[in-house]
Amino acid sequence: MNMIVVFPKIEHAKSVRSILQRSGYTVDAVCTSGAQALRAAGGLDGGIIICAYRLSDMLYSELYEYLAPYYDMLLIGSGAQIEECVTQQVVGLCTPLKVHELLQTVAMMAQVSARKKKKRRQKPAVRSQEEQRMITQAKRLLMERNHFPEQEAHRYLQKRSMENGTSLTETAQMILSMMGENR
After folding, report:
1. Read out DSSP for the chain?
2. How does pLDDT run across 53-90, given as a tens digit for each residue?
3. What are 133-154's pLDDT values in tens digits?
4. pTM over 0.85
5. Are residues 139 and 175 in contact, defined by beta-carbon separation less than 8 angstroms?
């Protein structure tokens, strides 16, 4: 799970990082500004941003707005700040911060984030018209030459794709080139 800790005072950020690391979490970056956090987040595939209400160059809301949609945010601030800010996408913890509350909240957010990431990866790939044309052409060829029904031709492509560790499009391309039909 990717985590970035952002507080205007570096000692606060390092303190939170230390708590997380002692509990087995890996912190990818410790930052004092929103710009630093955005640079760190740019190289990662989602995760959790743990931050203060006000950073040295922006508010938490601006940071959240600039982040990719697959980041969750844990906002740490005063009761009034948290009450004003918390939404479905932003979880809040009031100061003074209790270690067990921080760890429980991060654990819950990590589980939710992992489920979202898994769902994102399970979405079928969007194929271009050319890729779809190639797959259709390979299925048609299998149907004509091997007398497969359409469903069986598709299953054949899927099976070969999984066996070879290639995409459906690559498998269709191989079949078309092997049978000399790649037009």
Report:
1. --EEEE-SSHHHHHHHHHHHHHTT----EEESSHHHHHHHHHTSSSEEEEEESB-SSSBHHHHHHHS-TTEEEEEEE-HHHHHHH--SSEEEEESSPPHHHHHHHHHHHHHHHHHHHHHHHHSPPPPPHHHHHHHHHHHHHHHHHH---HHHHHHHHHHHHHHHT--HHHHHHHHHHHTT---
2. 999 999 999 999 999 888 999 999 999 888 887 666 78
3. 999 999 999 999 999 999 999 9
4. no
5. no
